[in-house]
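Entry 14. Structure prediction run on the chain below.
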Amino acid sequence: MDIKSKPIDFFLKIVYYVDMKHIIQFQISKGEKYYVAEGIELAIVTQAKTLDELTKNILEATSLYLEDEDPADFGLAPK
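Output returned:
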């Protein structure tokens, strides 16, 4: 099997600071052209051509997802 056609599956942990530290996990897979990140606990999905770009997209998507939300609703702060 050619290494380029072998799927890449791993987890990326992003530390998101609100009032406390919380880890938001993403499963990352590599398609033919793009890396795709899917949130494990939150409904966040993003993609990019490189892992560096994907990391930036994950941070941006997570910030936008939580922008107008109460962090306590997601277990990111005490209720």
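Strands lie at 9-17, 21-30, 35-39, 45-48.
Filed with the rest of this week's runs.
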